[in-house]
Amino acid sequence: MLHTRIPPHILCASALMLYALSPAHAQSSDLEASSWRFQLTPYVWTPSLRGSITVSPSLPTAHVSEPFSDIWKDLHASAFLNATARKDRYVLHLDMSHVSLHKSASLPAGFPLEAKARIKQTSVSVLGGYNWELSANDSLDAMVGARWWNVRSSVEAQPLLPETRLSKRFTDPILAVRWRHQFNPQWSTLLYADAGGFGVGSHATWQVLATVNYQVREQLYLSLGYRQLNVDYRKDAQRMDLRLGGPILGLTMQF
Question: What is the pLDDT of residue 179?
Answer without folding.
Answer: 97
